[in-house]
Amino acid sequence: MRRFAPILLAALAVSPASAQSLLNGLFSDHAIVQRDRPLPVFGTAKPGETVTASFAGQTLTAKAGADGAWRVDFPATPAGGPYQITASAPSGSAAAADVLVGDVWLCSGQSNMEMQVGASGDAWNQINNGAANDTIRMVTVEKADGRAPAADFKKPPVWKPTNKDNVGAFSAACFYFARELQKTRKVPMGLVHASWGGSGIEAWMTPAALRKVGGYDDAIATLELSLKDPAAANRRWGETIKGWWTAKHPGAAATAPWTGGGAWTAAPDGLGVWERWGVPALADFNGVVWFKAQVELTAAQARQTATLAVGQVDDMDTTYLNGVGVGATSGGWVDRDYPLAAGALKAGKNTIVVSAYDTYANGGMYGDPAKRALTLADGTKLPLTAWTYQIEPRVGPDQPRAPWDTLAGVSTLYNGMLAPMGPYAYAGVAWYQGETNVGRDQTYAPLLNAFMAERRQGQAADIPFLVVQLADYGAFAEQPGTFATAALRDAQRRAVVADGHAGLAVTHDIGNPLDIHPGEKQEVGRRLALAARRVYGEAVTTGPEVVSAKRVGDTVVVSFAQVGGRLVARGSDRVIGFELCDATCRWADGKIDGNTVVLTGVGTKVRFAWADSPTFNLFDASGLPAGPFEVSVQ
Question: Which pLDDT band, with edges at 50, 70 and 90, does 21 fall under?
Answer without folding.
Answer: confident
